[in-house]
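User: Show me a protein chain along with its predicted structure.
Assistant: Here is one chain, sequence first, then structure tokens.
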Amino acid sequence: MNSETILGVNVTPLNHKEITNAINQRIKAELKSTIVAINPEKIIKANKNQELLALLNSATYQIPDGIGVILASKLRKGALQSRVTGIDLMERLLELADTERYRIYLYGAHDSVVSKAVQVIKTKYTNIELVGYMHGYEQNTNKIIRDINNCSPDLLFVALGSPRQEFWIKENMDRLNVKVVQGVGGSFDVLSGKVKRAPKAFRNMGLEWFYRLMTNPSRFRRQLVLPAFLLKVLLKRKENSPIGEPE
């Protein structure tokens, strides 16, 4: 599978359905898969941290989570089709698990959050086999790995925040007896109802970031990453002139 490279970071040029189907095929083929979300903030961090850059590029799938990544691809006449957000892909994989009877495990967030997310998932996906969960404040990694492996999940969702969750996945993947591991950031907060997601109209227009800024103005400094990121992409495109083809 070919990836598009934006400022050195690989991004998977597949939509929700294509990635879900590809993951399902890999599960049935007994292949391990890791999924990380890519957004402008993470790309900028990776450009300053070679260890993070290598980690992101080593994943099986790097989903284009941020609208800025899509805009960057369009500026470069790239192949990215649409956003694939972490929460949306997680829900697609939950639907897949419900249909295929795959076993899932949730790890991360506060105990009250992850336990509520478990209740919501079991209510919404009545055939799902949710075999275990653990909050993200457990310090004993051996205990965490042991509990996950004892539950024998097919899919593991890790919500430790970025880049902590990506490093955790990379460091422990060889010890985990699972087929798929996805870093899902704050998705448990959304599933549990603790955090309200932007209305669908904002999401469809790629303005989820703007909604979060309106409802939480303290995010202003973080949002400044987007114009800085796009400027860097434009400058890189000029360096690669005349046509600015994908790297």
